[in-house]
Every structure is written in C-alpha cells, then in structure tokens.
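Handout, section 4.2: multi-component inputs.
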Amino acid sequence: MDVLYFAWVRERIGLPKERIDTSAATVTALVDELRAREERYAAAFADLSALRVAVDQELVDFDAPLAGAREVAFFPPMTGG
Amino acid sequence: MDVLYFAWVRERIGLPKERIDTSAATVTALVDELRAREERYAAAFADLSALRVAVDQELVDFDAPLAGAREVAFFPPMTGG
Amino acid sequence: MRIVVQEAGFDAGQELTRFSAADPGIGAIVSFTGVVRDTAEGTLDVMQIEHYPGMTEAALTKIAQEAMTRWALGDILVIHRFGRLAPGDQIMMVATTSAHRKDAFEAAEYLMDYLKSRAPFWKKEILRDGAHWVAARDEDEDALGRWD
Amino acid sequence: MRIVVQEAGFDAGQELTRFSAADPGIGAIVSFTGVVRDTAEGTLDVMQIEHYPGMTEAALTKIAQEAMTRWALGDILVIHRFGRLAPGDQIMMVATTSAHRKDAFEAAEYLMDYLKSRAPFWKKEILRDGAHWVAARDEDEDALGRWD
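Output:
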C-alpha cells in the first residue's frame, strides 16, 4: 500500500511517500503500526485530532477500513483558497 | 418647481419634465393638483402604490413636505441591475 | 470607490483586472456582472435602460458608502449602463475587495440588492412583437429585508 | 464546468471574460479571486502551496458537481494554483453563472467554503525570519455548517 504524507506531516516524517506492507484492518490500526516504528512517526501521529486522512483520495474517518485500499494519505486540515 | 417623469409615467403623461408653479405643501397635494389637470395625469397617478417619488433626488414618502423643494420626480419602482 | 454611469459598453474582465491591480495588498475580490438576457423565445431586440441623471450617481454613491461602513472593505467598483443594449451585452457590474471573503461577498450582495431596488434605473424590453416596461419583482424588494 | 489546478499564474480578468463569453444567454456572473496577502509587517517572501495531485482535481470536481445540483447554474469555473507564489499573486478564483444573482452568489460562496476546507491544499508562509504552515481556522470549518 502507498502511504503519502503532506505539509508538516511530510516534513516531520521526512518523506512524501513510502510503500508499506501491512495487514492493518483500519486507518487507526495502520497509525498504531507506524507510531511503533520510530520516534518521527510517533511525533507526527501524536495528536490525531490535528490530522486528516484520505483513503484512495477520499476523505475518511480514522476508523475507516483499509480492505482493498491502494493509497492512504495523512495530512493536516486543509488550507486552500 | 421642476417636475420630472420617468419610464411609463413619462410615456403616459407625454413629457419628461415640466415647470410647475404650485403651493402644494406635500407630494400628495401636488399629485392631487396634477390629477385634476387632465386625464393623462389622472391616468398616470391612478394608483400611487405603483409609483415612487423623489424630492430633490432623494426617495421620499408621498406625505413628504415640498417646502423649499426644487425638483420632484415621479416614476415606477426601479428595476436596475 | 469608483461609481460609473455610462452609455458606452465596458469589459467586466478588464475592469476586474484594473480594480484588482489598484490594491495588491488585498486578499479577496468579488465581482458580479449582469448581462442582458434574451426572452425564452429569443424575441428581444433591445433592452432600453432609462435613468435619472444626477440622482443615479448620488444613489449609487450612497449605497456604496453605506456598504463601506458596514463591512471591512478595501474598495468598491460600480458600473451601470443606460441606453440601448442588445441580448448578451453587459449591463452592469459591482466589485468589492476585502481582507476576508465573507465581507467581500456580503458587500457585493448588498450592493446588488440595493442597486436593484433603490437606484433610479428602469428597463424596457423592446420585443419583436411589442414592448413593455420590466416590472419590479416582489422578491427584489423583499431581498432588502435581510440587511435591516 | 472547468476545473484547473496549475502552477502557472493566471489573469482573473481574462478568465472572467472567457468564462462569460462561453454562454451569453446567462444573466448573472459572480467571481471570487483570492490574492496572496503579505503579513502586516511586510515580511512574506513566498507563499508555498502544496497539494495532493489527483485527489485535488477529484475533490474540486466533486464540490463543483454538488453546487451544480444545489443551484440553477449555467457553468462553474475553478482555478487554483500550487507552488511558490509572491505577495500580490492571484492564488485562485471561482466563478459561477446563473439566470439569477442569488443562485450565482450562493454557489460561489459554497464553492469557496468547501474549497477552503475540503480540497487538499496546504499553505506555507516563508517569511524573512522563518517559515510556518498556515493553520486551518475554526471559522472556515464552521462556515460549512450553513450548507447542511
């Protein structure tokens, strides 16, 4: 699965995209796996209320299932316009 | 005093502007004078709810005083934009 | 603040460019452009717009000044034509600038609502088979109520 | 419907002219243009806009399609830039056409409200003395509530 990071999440983790093999059933489970990896992930995911997530380019909640997902993206609240 | 007519009021009365010597104290009194003149005025002023009036280029009510007024204008509700 | 009442045509896009360039420090620019619409049957030859010279400029200025006091605006542009227009011609435009989009939007809507019902313009449609003065619509008068 | 996400600059006035010309039968055209604002102290060097290629276009298209179903619109234009912008640069614009001004205004405000908080753009201000990501504002999130 491709995992993408944007804005300060990308800066904190230190890369824009990576391939991750996971059997996590939900976004939250994936977040827990990432947090356990390294300090920079734990820091980026410290406060989920400051983050948004998209699965296959659709905004979803953190309890969304990952079955069949090809791409998950984490980023802060959007600031377009 | 200059009396101006616009839109269908102008067409019904048949002129855009005329000079009128009047001692009418209010717009309504002026309207009564005009109505008494000729049928075309009576027709134009038949329904005051379909008319608007400006005294010296400010929208006013029909009971507005005319003391010191230089210019009175009658016209239908405005349709700008 | 720029208030223009003219017979000549104008280009809303060019006016927007000029208006925007006047204050590059502003964040939000809203514009409204009104265009002469043909009838559903395509029978409109001419839209004739009559106005009250002198009072028109005064009324538009007063409306714009009121908007400047109600919202935090950088600038206001109002252009309104009179005379003989054809279907597809631009009749008028208003534009507003502000630091915030909400102010720019609200002020533009306010300007339009008041311009519709309080600026001395009257439209006559010259159709292929007749002519008539456009009647004021109750909903345009009612629209003013939201600004009380 | 035209949705454009691009790095290059654009001219809102020219875009408005082109957009308006596409359907001369329409009566009302509303546009909103967003411009990069400097800080109060004049310290902004660059506004850097990051986006999520693919999702950005999809999100903007979805927002525009929703607006088309909610209001009686003729057309919608959305342009949004990404990359490095300078103070005074135009960031984005939306424009709507409709037979009625109320629909054109409301739809443009709806597009702006959703674009602000639901399209995947992030702004970073590169200042003379540092840099920071622009935080989302509660009032922008709250603005969505009025469309429920």
